[in-house]
Design goal:
single chain; 15% strand; 5 helices; 170 residues; four-stranded mixed β-sheet
Length: 170
Amino acid sequence: DELTSVEKAAIFIFLNHTCFNGLYRVNANGAFNVPFGKYMKPMICNAELILEDSRLLNSVDLVIMNGDYRCVGRRLARRNTNFVYFDPPYDSDTSTFNNYTEEGFGKREHVRLANVFKELDKKGVKVMLSNHNTSLVRELYDGYNIHVIEAKRNINSNGKKRGKVEEVII
């Protein structure tokens, strides 16, 4: 809590580039709990990329908010000119793991998020969401433009189960 936002960002980048496959996860107490990665020379900082990202993000009228999806509607200033992208913990048809946060993010949270998504859409807010291509996700967003894509995933305790998975952009 005593660190500046820049120091917090630097630590996050360090952890992201040195922990197991760049995974971010916390335990029930809210403490980061990802094991070390096995990297000989991890690239911690790509200064050129960070500076280019900074230039791009500062060249447009942009506000990035990070927080509870249920608060988004209250925080929007201009309904018809906003774009909201949701990147929730992904749903799974085969796994019950949902402990990316201390509260977890299970099926009920996916239903609640879909309701917020739909409310924002009705208000004219442009909304976008990514997730796994699961039966629940397809059901919750039926009627919306659902684009199926393949994404490579390197996070799995079993190396043979790593590879391409179907995701959706809604």
